[in-house]
């Protein structure tokens, strides 16, 4: 299994997932700063020229949510997903789509300062997104209650960026949730790899508004 990766990008989500699962994989470096994502070989894996992407035998999958869902289904024994006929599968799928379809666009909208239309825009607005997370976290420490799953990897890693970029106040239920997520051993391992590779490749690893974790 090959993860197309570059440090300090959204490929970190897939790296975190793989480190939670502890399954064998290799990193395939795609230097998005040098334009390697536009190489025709990589475009065959992801025509969008974006990371993360995954190759597993003849399977090719890109888009963070799809990559994590593929991995969760591929390794059900790791219990980072929800089986097809489990009633929680509905909520699992909902949150799997939520980060890319609602949280990220609402964050981008806030960055631009544009006045959106909360009814017609699919992501509503950032306040509604925050409320949806807070509501889910009333049921337990994770989005699906007591079970930590792939959806927490997507949500917590993105909320962390929202805090750093000062788009969401780092406080309350959401702050506690992100802290809890980042305290996991799987996160620690992935984070150490990401840091190590960033240093090896001499990337700017400074974290701050000007250099958030996804510093592309
Ligand atoms: N919707 C995509 C977004 C991926 C994305 O934007 N990745 C950035 C790195 S954080 C990238 O590869 N950018 C290279 C480019 O756009 O050329 C996902 O969630 O996988």
Count of folded domains: 2
Shape: globular
Give the SSE string.
EHEHEEHHHHHH
* Low-pLDDT segments: 205-213
Mean pLDDT: 94
Beta percentage is 5-15%
The main pleated sheet reads as: 4 strands, mixed
User: Helical stretch count?
Assistant: 8
CATH topology category name of the largest domain: Glutathione S-transferase Yfyf (Class Pi), Chain A, domain 2
Distinct ligand kinds: glutathione
**Rg value:** 17 Å
C-alpha end-to-end distance: 25 Å
Number of strands: 4
Content-based structural category? alpha+beta
CATH A-level architecture of the largest domain? Up-down Bundle
State the helicity in percent bands: 40-55%
For the largest beta sheet, what order do the strands appear in spatially? 2-1-3-4
CATH class of the largest domain: Mainly Alpha
């Amino acid at each position: 299994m090959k993860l197309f990766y570059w440090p300090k990008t959204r490929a970190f989500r897939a790296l975190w997932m793989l480190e939670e699962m502890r399954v064998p994989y290799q990193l395939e470096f795609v230097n998005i700063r040098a334009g390697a994502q536009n190489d025709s070989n990589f475009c065959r894996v992801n025509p969008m020229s974006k990371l993360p992407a995954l190759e597993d035998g003849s399977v090719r999958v890109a888009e963070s949510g799809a990559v994590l869902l593929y991995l969760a289904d591929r390794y059900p024994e790791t219990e980072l997903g929800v089986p097809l006929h489990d009633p929680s599968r509905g909520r699992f799928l909902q949150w799997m789509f939520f980060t890319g379809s609602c949280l990220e666009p609402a964050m981008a909208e806030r960055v631009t300062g544009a006045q959106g239309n909360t009814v017609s825009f699919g992501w509503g607005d950032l306040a509604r997104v925050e409320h949806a997370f807070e509501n889910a976290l009333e049921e337990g420490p994770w989005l699906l209650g007591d079970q930590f799953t792939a959806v927490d990897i997507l949500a917590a890693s993105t909320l962390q960026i929202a805090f750093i970029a000062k788009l969401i106040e780092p406080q309350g239920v959401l702050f506690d949730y992100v802290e809890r997520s980042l305290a996991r051993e799987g996160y620690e391992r992935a984070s150490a790899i990401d840091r190590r590779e960033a240093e090896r490749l001499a990337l700017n690893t400074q974290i701050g508004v000007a250099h958030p974790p996804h510093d592309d």
